[in-house]
Amino acid sequence: MDSGAVGVVDLTTKAAIRMKSKHDSVRTLISQETSDSASLMNYIRQVCGSVKFIPDRPRELVSGGYDTALLHFDYHEGKILSTRKIPPYEAVGGIGLSPPFVTSIAISLTGIIAAGTADGRLLIGCGGYKAPQGKSGKKKRSRKWEGLSEDKEVITKKAEGPFVALSFDGSGVLTASTLLGVMSRYQVFVDDDEGSVVITKLWQDETQSVKKVNTLVVDEKRVVVGGLTAGGKGVIEIWNKDVNYEIYGLPTAIPP
């Protein structure tokens, strides 16, 4: 919500539950030009931009906001269980660019969280990772999800614009898109024994008709991207996630 509040709605009873805590307000300086002068205005934003349920933990969710924070809730009790404040990115020369507003979140079936920021970084948190059944190194579901633990995360610069859409597929591959349609797919490998995380880019390309991305979804075969054309009309593109588009050409957009 634009108020920074986080809540859930029970679709059976239509009852709304609001969390006891919310994302903090953010004060931003904006230049305002008048006929004879230019001045700076204080603009206060208090936005919760993304909310995701945590798989296999039916009482818990994570939200991300413009206060650069990730909040982990027990939504039955409405209380915060853990938090993570994303630090600013320092470019060459020590000058930061866009603030690390949290603009998108995804959580894999194995408990890995990915958060995209307005300054083009990805946070991959593996503290809540649970190896799939049948694989070596598997562990039982812990009493506490520690996906926001700083000790088990990687924060890496991957784009020049904000990440506005993220989605894990069933195999744990992360698909990400920036606002202007730079799409990438990453394999996230967790070595539980060594405590290391490896992020490998599988492919990267740009959307064709979607000029401003709003969302994306991934299934077993496809990546579906939705957004706006240059003229402001709604459009979607359907990509085969395993095709090398440098060889076979780019997909065709489909009007909604």
Outline the structure in words.
The chain has 256 residues and is mostly beta strands. 2% of the residues lie in helices and 48% in strands. It starts with 6 loop residues before the first strand and ends with a strand.
Describe the secondary-structure layout.
Blueprint: E1 7-9, E2 16-18, E3 26-33, E4 38-45, E5 48-53, E6 60-65, E7 69-74, E8 79-85, E9 102-107, E10 113-117, E11 121-125, E12 153-157, E13 163-168, E14 173-178, E15 182-191, E16 196-206, E17 212-218, E18 222-228, E19 234-240, H1 245-248, E20 253-254
Summarize the entry for a quick read:
By secondary structure, the chain is mainly β.
Record field, number of beta strands = 20
Total of helices: 1
Calculate the mean pLDDT score and round it.
Answer: 84
Runs with pLDDT <50, length 5+?
A: 34-42
Oligomer: single chain
Give the SSE order as H and E letters: EEEEEEEEEEEEEEEEEEEHE
- Secondary structure category: mainly beta
Question: How much helicity do the residues have?
Answer: under 10%
Beta strand %: over 45%
Characterize the main sheet: 4 strands, antiparallel
What order do the strands of the largest sheet run in, or round the barrel if closed?
5-6-7-8
Measure the end-to-end span.
Answer: 26 Å
The Cα radius of gyration reads 19 Å
Shape: globular
Which features does this protein show?
mainly beta, 4-stranded antiparallel beta sheet
